[in-house]
């Protein structure tokens, strides 16, 4: 079996695969990751091949503790200290100056994205392997991110091993923040709300705000089309219920009728979003009409994913 329980035997097998420079899908609190030894060019290459990921898109490196994170960074800014203390382990990725001695971790640039995941299985895997694990979401490039082991298998049928830790609790990717400049800068909205980051460090710049002092003004992976189901996804202000057919799925939230009715709470909505898109794809609809969520900061990450999923 390629899907295994994350018990002692499952973890032993996963470590064996990682040490053999291959890849393992594992659960995190955000989405499932496709992990490989971040120090092995061969293993990292296998991630890009399996996902069909463009080589210019760098990977997040997962570590078990702050000490391991510091070893990958050339400097450790005060901002990193504060954010790591408050939010790690958790759904926050920090972009830092890359340690000069490091080659080949993801795509080559002068920064590195790092996080400590808040998931027992992920942490056990990191500790048992003793390796920093480069891990993007465990789906084909541009597809819907996986929140269950089953989603991983369907998107990456050739994956060598999947540790099944049940459904991911956040269900949406980590928030990516650049801490190489004076002020923290958002690169990708995600599970950790901006409000919490602002409360921790005073302010955070949006991708297009302020001076261009950070190493990266935007996350290379924020390509326009991403997170997309097979069906065509269309964002609408209001769903016109007349003239709907079986080939159209409707994704809404509480208070509106649809094929999939998610919560009106942005965190709960995010937790179900990818699974709902997978279900609609399974139902074989050709089009998914999505009722646009409110244009408020709480919905930033969800709106970001929906607009990319809708992009042609
Ligand atoms: O929640 C998550 O972040 C999940 C789990 C598995 O940890 N991972 C994830 O990885 O979403 P991925 O590869 O799907 O997205 C990583 C994002 C991409 O947009 C990538 O471009 C960006 O992080 N990134 C990676 N390294 C970067 C760097 N050095 N500078 C700026 N952005 C970077
Ligand atoms: Mg991804």
Helix share, percent? 25-40%
Number of domains: 2
What would you say the CATH architecture of the largest domain is?
Alpha-Beta Complex
Shape: globular
**Rg estimate, integer Å:** 19 Å
* Number of DSSP-assigned strands: 15
| CATH class category of the largest domain | Alpha Beta
What's the SSE blueprint?
Layout: E1 3-4, H1 8-19, E2 24-26, E3 33-37, H2 41-51, E4 60-62, H3 66-70, H4 78-87, E5 92-97, E6 111-115, H5 120-129, E7 133-134, H6 149-155, E8 162-163, E9 175-178, E10 184-188, H7 194-201, E11 204-205, E12 232-236, E13 248-253, E14 260-262, H8 266-282, E15 287-291, H9 300-310
Parallel strand pairs: 1-8, 4-6, 5-9, 10-11, 12-15, 13-14, 13-15
Antiparallel strand pairs: 2-3, 3-7, 4-7, 5-6, 9-10
The structure holds threonylcarbamoyladenylate (TXA) and magnesium ion (MG).
Brief summary of the model shown:
Its main location: cytoplasm. This protein is α/β, with parallel strands linked by helices.
Write up what this structure looks like.
This protein folds into two domains: 3-205, DHBP synthase (Alpha-Beta Complex); 232-310, no CATH class. Helix 1 (8-19) packs across helix 5 (120-129). It has helices at residues 8-19, 41-51, 66-70, 78-87, 120-129, 149-155, 194-201, 266-282, 300-310; strands at residues 3-4, 24-26, 33-37, 60-62, 92-97, 111-115, 133-134, 162-163, 175-178, 184-188, 204-205, 232-236, 248-253, 260-262, 287-291. The strands form three sheets. Strands 2-3-7-4-6-5-9-10-11 form a nine-stranded mixed β-sheet, with helices on both faces. It is of the alpha/beta class and 312 residues long. The model has no long low-confidence stretch (mean pLDDT 93). It is globular. The protein binds threonylcarbamoyladenylate (TXA) and magnesium ion. ATP binds at residues 53, 57, 111, 137, 145, 188, 227. It catalyses: L-threonine + hydrogencarbonate + ATP = L-threonylcarbamoyladenylate + diphosphate + H2O. L-threonine binds at residues 30, 62, 115, 135, 174. Residues 8-192 form the YrdC-like domain.
């Amino acid at each position: 079996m390629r899907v295994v329980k994350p018990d002692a035997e499952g973890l032993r097998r996963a470590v064996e695969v990682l040490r053999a420079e291959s890849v393992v899908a594992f659960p995190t609190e955000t989405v499932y990751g496709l992990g490989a030894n971040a120090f092995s060019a061969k293993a990292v290459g296998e991630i890009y091949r399996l996902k069909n990921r463009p080589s210019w898109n760098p990977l997040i490196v997962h570590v078990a503790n702050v000490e391991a994170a510091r070893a990958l960074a050339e400097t450790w800014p005060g901002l990193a200290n504060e954010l790591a203390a408050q939010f790690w382990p958790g759904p926050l990725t920090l972009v830092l100056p890359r340690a000069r001695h490091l080659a080949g971790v993801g795509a080559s640039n002068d920064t590195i994205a790092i996080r400590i995941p808040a998931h027992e299985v992920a942490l056990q895997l990191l500790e048992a392997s003793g390796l920093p694990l480069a891990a993007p979401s465990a789906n084909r490039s541009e597809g819907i991110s996986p929140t269950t082991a089953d989603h991983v298998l369907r998107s990456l049928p050739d994956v060598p091993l999947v540790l099944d830790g049940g459904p991911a609790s956040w269900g949406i990717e980590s928030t990516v923040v650049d801490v190489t400049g004076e002020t923290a800068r958002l690169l990708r909205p995600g599970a950790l709300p901006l409000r919490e980051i602002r409360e921790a460090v005073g302010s955070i710049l949006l991708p297009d705000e302020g001076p261009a002092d950070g190493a990266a003004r935007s996350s290379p992976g924020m390509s326009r089309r991403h997170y997309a189901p097979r069906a065509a996804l269309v964002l609408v202000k209001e769903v016109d219920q007349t003239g709907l057919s079986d080939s159209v799925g409707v994704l809404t939230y509480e208070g509106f009728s649809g094929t999939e009715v998610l919560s009106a709470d942005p965190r709960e909505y995010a937790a179900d979003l990818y699974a709902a898109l997978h279900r609609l794809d399974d139902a074989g609809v050709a089009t998914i009409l999505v009722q646009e969520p409110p244009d408020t900061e709480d919905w930033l990450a969800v709106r970001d994913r929906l607009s990319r999923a809708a992009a042609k």
